[in-house]
Amino acid sequence: MFEKIRLNMFCTCTATMNLSQQALFVKTFKIIFKVLRIFGFLPFSFHAKKKFFSPSFVASIYTVFILLTIYLIFMLCSYYSMIWLEIVRAANGKIYFKAVYIAFNITSSVVAILVTLKNQKEIVDILNKIWQVWSLLEQTSPKMADRKLLKSVIVKILLVDVIPGACVFSYRYQYDVANNKSYAHQGLLFTLLQFITSLNIHNMFIVLFYVGTHIYRLININFSNLNLKIKRLEKGLSFWRLQPEKRNEILHFIEAQLNQLVTLHFLLNEITQKLVQIHALTLLLIVMTDFLVITYSLYSMYVTTVLEQQRGREPQLSSYGFHVFVVYFTLLQAFYFVRSAMHYTKRAGKAGLILEDQRNDCSEDRLSRTITSFTVQMVYQDCRIMCFNMFEIDFTLIRSMLASITNYFVIIMQLQLSI
């Protein structure tokens, strides 16, 4: 009796925990969606009662206002007063690097907003289809939160975006004020906007891939549940032979469910790939900006320490620490960006393995042929995240990026030493 009470209490606590985690999972993505709307990357409105996205004239006007005031007027004016005039006064490799990577950062944000505004109807249609697939699967799946994704998103927001950024930028501002720099306030705001813009562009794609990953998890859970039904059917084969009508009814149900899940699987990949194609230029600019930021920061660390000591000057440790943080921040943004795309591809391909297990466990010829046909379609479906069909968004991209940065950095050091 006591064991039953403990088991019931454990099941109740587990169900409550799963529901609270699921609510936290949904709220986290809603917060990120609202932040992206504030900075102009998603000029859409979401109707909570009817549960669909729609183009919003007010949101579009607000996005154009943000585009003109923040990304064009303020950032370009700050770029001219703080970067371009510095190039005119004292041109060197460090300043050129800084000018190029900031120009790419501004360009990537402007391109992301312009592409979204231009393809507003298509993107809204894609978001509505994703939401419909998610809602449909939530009704037939167990109410369980995706703990791995939830933990990854919370760690990304707290330990990568918010806390380190607040600490470093507060210290940087105090350093500029202490050195009586006239543009301390403008410089901090300009750097902060670059920081926020970079993380928002990365988060926009990270959220997209994580939502797709979560939906594929729900599809895989439904595939596994059907697999259990097939195994139960096979175990009671002698019983079901006595009830052929009931057996055929169950087989028709399993076949209809398989057909629906496979259709949702293909639909989700199709609309995700379409959205990636729409924002392919944005993806390319993100990768190029990350490459330039890491290269510039490593070169600045080298100039701040080695060259200053060679010239008999005291290294500026505050500037060195700031560039260390920039490398840390950019590498983690690139890591989570690539990791989210890898999770999407991995879970999308897992459905084929589950179907293969179903085919091996099924002795019914008609159902086995259906599963075989679906498995072949899954094998030839391309779920990789590609940018202009030039390169795949996976960990080989980070390795190639780091290898190229190392080569360029060695060349720069050799040129610097030979001068």
From TrEMBL:
GO biological process, one term: chemosensory behavior
Annotated compartments: Cell membrane
Pfam family, one: 7tm_7
Keywords, alphabetical: Cell membrane, Membrane, Receptor, Transducer, Transmembrane, Transmembrane helix
The UniProt record lists the keyword Cell membrane: yes
Coiled coil: none
Membrane topology of the entry: Multi-pass membrane protein
GO cellular component: axon; dendrite; neuronal cell body; plasma membrane
Transmembrane segments: 57-83, 95-117, 153-171, 191-211, 278-299, 319-338
Keyword Membrane listed: yes
PANTHER family in the cross-refs: GUSTATORY RECEPTOR, INVERTEBRATE GUSTATORY RECEPTOR
Entry function: Gustatory receptor which mediates acceptance or avoidance behavior, depending on its substrates.
Family from the record: Belongs to the insect chemoreceptor superfamily. Gustatory receptor (GR) family.
Record-given protein name: Gustatory receptor
